[in-house]
């Protein structure tokens, strides 16, 4: 950055001159934006998925059941699901609820995986008693108000951000609208409720920051 304008980036593949940059880095978005001295925060949002062994075709739908249970069957026949948006607040999950880390034991991983699959079996009879293949723990790019954050950064108009929990489903429309904004300087009306300005409580001044992010 020079006088508030983007001049380029330094990457593991070398230096590249740029006049526009779109940061679409998922959970690494705060770390990347910090390189431009821009403070940005995401919620810490761990989540687990139980993956069964392969089964014959049972369903082509994504199912939402009571108690936070959701599941679907993948193309390889495995049934994948979860039963809670966040880890229960118990001592075994203390570290996971604070920062990115894996399960402390394989026993805990197997317990959660089998527990979730047993719940799925109550709603999908063909999956009753199915064997657990694995349980995955991921960390979701969750904005602090849980809505997408799209567009140029306040005070750093050469830097654009695109981060949302619904990245896979929204990627085509986000990519098209972001490209139009960057290439044509044409603000996308659909992005209006999701601009990063909504987190700014004070104006950006000069080359330093005089604002706070909520």
How much β-strand is present in the residues? 25-35%
> Counting H and I runs of at least 4 residues, what is the number of helices?
3
- In total, the number of strands is 12
What share of the residues lie within helices?
A: 10-25%
The first-to-last residue Cα distance is: 25 Å
Q: What's the main sheet like?
A: 5 strands, antiparallel
Order of helices and strands: EEEHEEEEEHEEEEH
What is the 3D form? elongated
Structural class: alpha+beta
Which assembly state applies to the chains in this document? single chain
Radius of gyration: 21 Å
Arithmetic mean pLDDT: 89
Characterization of this structure:
The chain is of the alpha+beta class and 214 residues long. It has helices spanning 29-34, 106-123, 167-184, and strands at 8-11, 14-17, 21-23, 42-43, 46-52, 63-65, 69-73, 79-82, 132-139, 142-143, 149-153, 156-163. The protein has 3 helices and 12 strands. A hairpin with a 2-residue loop joins strand 11 (149-153) and strand 12 (156-163). The chain is elongated and about 60 Å long. It starts with 7 loop residues before the first strand and ends in a 30-residue tail after the last helix.
């Amino acid at each position: 950055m020079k006088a508030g304008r983007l001049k380029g980036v330094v990457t593991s593949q070398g230096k590249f001159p740029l006049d526009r940059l779109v940061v679409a880095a998922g959970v690494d978005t705060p770390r990347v934006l910090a390189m431009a001295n821009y403070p940005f925060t995401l919620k810490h949002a761990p989540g687990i998925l139980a993956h069964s062994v392969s089964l014959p075709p049972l369903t082509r739908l994504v199912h939402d059941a009571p108690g936070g249970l959701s599941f679907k069957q993948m193309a390889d026949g495995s049934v994948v699901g979860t039963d809670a948006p966040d880890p229960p607040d118990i001592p075994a999950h203390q570290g996971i609820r604070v920062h990115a880390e894996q399960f402390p034991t394989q026993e805990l991983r197997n317990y959660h995986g089998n527990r979730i699959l047993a719940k799925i079996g109550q709603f999908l009879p063909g999956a009753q008693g199915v064997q657990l293949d694995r349980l995955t723990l991921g960390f979701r790019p969750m904005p602090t108000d849980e809505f997408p954050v799209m567009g140029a950064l306040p005070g750093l108009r050469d830097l654009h951000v695109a981060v949302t929990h619904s990245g896979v489903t929204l990627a085509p429309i986000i990519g098209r609208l972001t490209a139009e904004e960057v290439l044509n300087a044409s603000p996308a009306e659909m992005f209006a409720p999701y601009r990063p300005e909504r987190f700014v409580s004070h104006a950006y001044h000069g080359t330093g920051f005089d604002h706070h992010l909520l």
